[in-house]
Amino acid sequence: TPSPVTVTVTGAAGQIGYALLFRIASGQLIGPDTPINLKLLEIPKAVTAAEGTAMELTDCAFPLLRSIDVTDDARRAFDGTNVALLVGARPRTQGMERGDLLEANGGIFKPQGEAINAGAAEDVRVLAVGNPANTNALITQAHAPDVPAERFTAMTRLDHNRALAQLAAKLDVGVNDIRKLAIWGNHSATQYPDLFHAEVGGKNAAEQVEQSWLADEFIPTVAKRGAAIIEARGASSAASAANAAIDHVHTWVNGTAEGDWTSAGVVSDGSYGVPEGLISSFPVTARDGRYEIVQGLDIDPFSRERIDASVAELTEERDTVRRLGYI
Ligand code: NAX
Question: pTM score > 0.95 for this model?
Fold first, then answer.
């Protein structure tokens, strides 16, 4: 059997945590043979609830689940961790300005970055799910200078999966018939789901849909899907977000298929005019346990404008947290 992997989940008592932990413990995160040690981080008042979830995990008698540690101490939670899923975050409440939101989350992700730097395993991989995910990942990375920057990522896989599902429904094909779709920029309403490089049945996807559908239906439906779920469900996406987190890490570890790519928020190397160091979504491949930005794509003017707008928002978020002293 492969050696055990330690997985830390923050916000473990939340709704994404509840949809995520059982799938990790059943072997879907890394692979069906890899034993798992779970570490659950919560704020003090939610530790008891997280302990309740731990009891249920125990009661599943998952063959791969070796241990569960519940704590409100970040140092302990990230000690020896191989995979850190940063789900817990301060949600935006009514009347809260964007700056307040960034400030509240800086207070969460800075100490978590420090704890990762202090104690995580050599090969640690970090995924920020909690919003604003890209900038939370950036803050975490800034406080873990001993960990290679490429190990810090933000989740746009849910946006990617939403885009796959919308396009598959439009063209009446299976999601597996679609290749090379991409989400660019921020995990926010400015994100840009790109069909111009996507292929369906080996042919260009954008050429198989009306431009009006692409611009007026597809892009806004994908970008505003989170709000539509809240409207319908009375709560934000949870199981689909957990599913995307599983996909993100599974792909990172196990790789993308030949001739395909996926989407992830990764540290920019300056490609496509995205300022170096920003954590922005790109089309990425995964090979040998590393995400790499797909290089050399032609960006048409329609796409350029949308990528630039989303990247401008990321730049603004970075400037705000810089002003606040978080990076
Ligand atoms: P919940 O409010 O249900 O759970 C969040 C949990 O985090 C709570 O139990 C809370 O006690 C805990 N928490 C808060 N501060 C913490 C800290 N400092 N350390 C450890 N735990 C802490 O939210 P949930 O629905 O689970 O969503 C979690 C986050 O995911 C939110 O920020 C949400 O906006 C974000 N999302 C991101 C998505 C993405 O695609 N990147 C999609 C889904 C989701 O909206």
Answer: yes
Does some domain include residue 324? Answer: no
Which residue among 143, 160, 187, 248 is the active-site one?
A: 187
* Kind plus residue range of the DSSP H or E element containing 291: strand 290-293
Residue 278 — very low, low, confident or very high, per pLDDT cuts 50/70/90? very high
Is the domain of 104 the same as that of 174? no
Reported as a single tens digit per residue, the pLDDT across 203-228 is 999 999 999 999 999 999 999 999 99
For residue 94, what are the domain limits?
5-154
Residue 158 alpha carbon, nearest atom of ligand 1:
40
Q: Please give the C-alpha separations between residue 126 and each of 43, 62, 131, 148, 233, in angstroms, as whole numbers.
A: 19, 24, 14, 11, 29
Give the model's pLDDT for residue 56: 98
The CATH number assigned to the domain holding 81 equals: 3.40.50.720
Which ipTM was obtained for this model?
0.99
Of the candidates 222, 230, 212, 241, the residue with the CA atom closest to the CA atom of residue 167: 222
Is residue 187 annotated as a catalytic residue, yes or no? yes
Q: Are residues 140 and 182 in the same domain?
A: no
Q: Which of 181, 161, 96 is nearest to 132 (CA)?
A: 96
Ligand 1 centroid – CA 134 distance (Å): 14
Q: For ligand 1, is residue 185 a contact (CB within 6 Å)?
A: no
- Domain-embedded: residue 323: no
Same domain, 232 and 202: yes
Ligand 1 center–CA 178 separation, angstroms: 30
